[in-house]
Amino acid sequence: MSTKPSILKGTRDFLPSTMAKRNFIFSTIKTVFEKYGYAPIETPTIEKTETLMGKYGEEGDRLIFRVLNLGDKLAKADVNALKEAHLVRFANSISDKALRYDLTVPFARFVVQHQNDLTFPFKRYQIQPVWRADRPQKGRYREFYQCDVDVVGSESLLYEIELIQIFDEVLSNLGVNDFTIKFNNRKILTGIAEVCGQADKLTDITVAIDKLDKIGKDGVIKELKDRGVNDTAINIINPLFELEGNNDELVVKMTEFLKESKVGLKGIEELTYVLDRIKKLGLNKAKLSFEVTLARGLSYYTGAIFEVVANQVKMGSICGGGRYDNLTELFGLKGMSGVGVSFGADRIYDVMTELNLFPKSLTSSTQVLFINFGEKEQDYSLSILKLLRNHQISAEIYPTSAKMKKQMKYANDKQIPYVVMIGSNEIETNTITYKEMETGEQNNSSLNNFITLLTKLP
Asked: What domains lie within the chain, and their CATH numbers?
């Protein structure tokens, strides 16, 4: 008995119409990345498990898709570890490789491995899929694309300014007119932990408060308690959940809150430097907002952190990123500060779909369909077809001389904007008859005029 074919939850097939829209997003992002001087690279789908594990914090490590060892390697599995419930040890014994969780950690490995071939500061972009063993839900997939842009080899805050401008320009060019770039600094969060007398609980505090939007204030407080953060510290943190004011007012309040923390004040200084210059430069559509409780759970961030949300759509962040000073050190290379951000192409696609932002012209890759009336007309059309393609006009001919209704349905189904009909009269007069499918208008024209019409289209 045959079973109905299906795919894993959290993964998707993409029809041509969907791919046209996805490629529009990728092309728009790539154009802006290159405009700011970033060059493309690629890294393997599969990395060594040791490359990935321990870089994303406890939450991230649980979501890494491991790849099972094969053959003799699998036969060497530590069965005793499984019997003794040492699951991490058992997992390591049956898997020494994994699908990449993000593009940043593999990039750090790439930089260390190829450091002698790179010019620093090194500016790269990367558009590739990543995988997470997450529970699928709206806007959250197990396989999805990231569009990353990073620079390593410089501590200059000019790059934070540049990345904010890239956020703004990419999303504005895609037609997303109402979005917020949330901005914080991990040094500020370190300062909060110090002021609370819980510096050793920094990771627990950041992981908990990073969930504020998902589980609310009460949920965060419960998680802080569950993670061993004492009541005194929670009482000190509590007012931060309801801080109000514009960026300048929040900076003043947090400067006072962090007055006893040197590292916290350094974070305020860095954040203020960026905010002041963005204020002078201005942004297209974005609103830049200092968010005191923005933490981003990934443990490798050390400075600025970003998240971007589309304000008209109920969804998590569509972009994110931050500065990482020690990531390459994990692979043996010290003193290589980096900063980067990632565009979640799949979530951006969902936002643009919900807001109906895709250009209508993306619906078809074919601009012109030639109707097939028979062998004589077909052969004549083939020479014209070649000429159109030489002018970079996408065109095709129906493969058989089927009924006109069937050929026109093909054009409608594919949303091809122009249909060309060449019969004996057109061959004799060296003209073409074309129909504009949207309006139904039909015209007879010279081939040159038709080519001019098509090449002038947006």
From this structure: 20-41+101-354 (3.30.930.10), 364-455 (3.40.50.800)
